[in-house]
Amino acid sequence: MHTLDGTDARILLAMVEDPRQTVVAMAAKLGLSRNTVQARMASLEKRHAFLAFDHRISPAALGYPLTAFISVHVQQQKLGALAVSLAGIPEVLEAHGLSGRADLLVRVVSTGAEDLFRINGKILACDGVERTETSLAMNELVPFRLTPLLERRLRP
Amino acid sequence: MHTLDGTDARILLAMVEDPRQTVVAMAAKLGLSRNTVQARMASLEKRHAFLAFDHRISPAALGYPLTAFISVHVQQQKLGALAVSLAGIPEVLEAHGLSGRADLLVRVVSTGAEDLFRINGKILACDGVERTETSLAMNELVPFRLTPLLERRLRP
DNA sequence: AAGAATATTGATCATTCTGCCTTATATTGC
DNA sequence: GCAATATAAGGCAGAATGATCAATATTCTT
């Protein structure tokens, strides 16, 4: 079994519904045996279906209510060093290299507008960075969710 | 106590280190009483420090190994309807309205290049969308992390 | 269609955890 | 200094866990 099946999806959906739920409770709710749920969970973990707990921590609750996406134009030769420099900036939550143009998409959080300005400066100061373009994340049109993909897995 | 203190940060760091850890284990590891850890966790939960479990599910494990960021230029008047349309596309994980220009940043996942093409088409077909610009997320220069912000909270 | 491999179930067991309580002792804010 | 709050330490009943096992289903292969 290489790919996730409907039962896995149901278990994950149950986890989304209540993350602190016990295995026994889930088994009851899903009409599965405790053994099965436990085995599936172990299997999911082995297949790296779970990302680090970092992802569940709210930056806002930590005191960083402002999210921004910074498009960073770089000199490709210095990408390696840049990865290190960017990783040195705590407010950088993630940075992706994008296809096509020689630029990165960097997700940062900040305590406010002036803080964001300072962080942008730190990025600009990194060796290999040519210019940046900051966009504040104003409204969440679609708040993060994965459940539609899980629900789709239920049918076939 | 409005903001997160060092003890909260230590607890969260312990959670990152091992999410399935029990409260008793954490108390032992951190040199706190079980009571304290339990109370802190409850308090963190009450303050919405934890995001939904969705965030910890790996799209790759679900069969969507390709991530892309789609910049969507829109007619502002139709933002409301667009939120609904975009939410109707399962592969859209999140969508942010950006400051300044009238465009959105949409994070999508897909099973492959042709799938991404199809999804882009679905977005283009949404009422209010003028044009899109797709960027594939090639390499993760900085994989998602929040621990630097937590560790900073340990000192002062 | 038969046989093999794999999943699921139900069951047990000892150990551990939880949720909830109470009391005493810091620690902190005013 | 006093009051409010956080922490520690302990106890207790109920529940959950992890690790088994054997018996059935189910799925896959050939």
Describe the structure.
Two copies of one chain form a homodimer. Chain A is of the alpha+beta class. Chain A has helices at about 5-15, 25-30, 35-45, 60, 80-85, 115-125, 145-150, and strands at about 65-75, 90-100, 105-110, 130-140. A four-stranded antiparallel β-sheet of chain A has the order 2-3-1-4. In chain A, helix 2 (about 25-30) packs across helix 3. The longest helix of chain A has 13 residues, at about 35-45. Chains A and B meet through helix 1, helix 4, helix 5, strand 2 and strand 3 of A and helix 1, helix 4, strand 2, strand 3 and strand 4 of B. Strand 4 (about 130-140) of chain A pairs antiparallel with strand 2 (about 90-100) of chain B, so a sheet runs across the interface. Chain A binds a DNA duplex (30 and 30 nucleotides) through helix 2 and helix 3.
Approximate strand percentage of chain A: 15-25%
Indicate the mean pLDDT of chain A. 95
- Protein structure class of chain A: alpha+beta
* Oligomer description: homodimer
What portion of residues of chain A is helical? 40-55%
The main pleated sheet of chain A reads as: 4 strands, antiparallel
Strand order of the largest sheet of chain A: 2-3-1-4
Distance between the termini of chain A: 15 Å
- Kindly report the CATH topology of the largest domain in chain A: Alpha-Beta Plaits
Q: Report the CATH architecture of the largest domain in chain A.
A: 2-Layer Sandwich
**Fourth-level CATH superfamily of the largest domain in chain A:** Lrp/AsnC effector binding domain/regulation of amino acid metabolism (RAM) domain
Number of domains of chain A: 2
CATH class call of the largest domain in chain A? Alpha Beta
Helix-strand string of chain A:
HHHHEHEEHEH
Largest interface: A-B, 66 and 66 residues
* Rg over C-alpha atoms of chain A, rounded to the nearest angstrom: 20 Å
The beta-strand count of chain A equals 4
Q: What is the general shape of chain A?
A: elongated
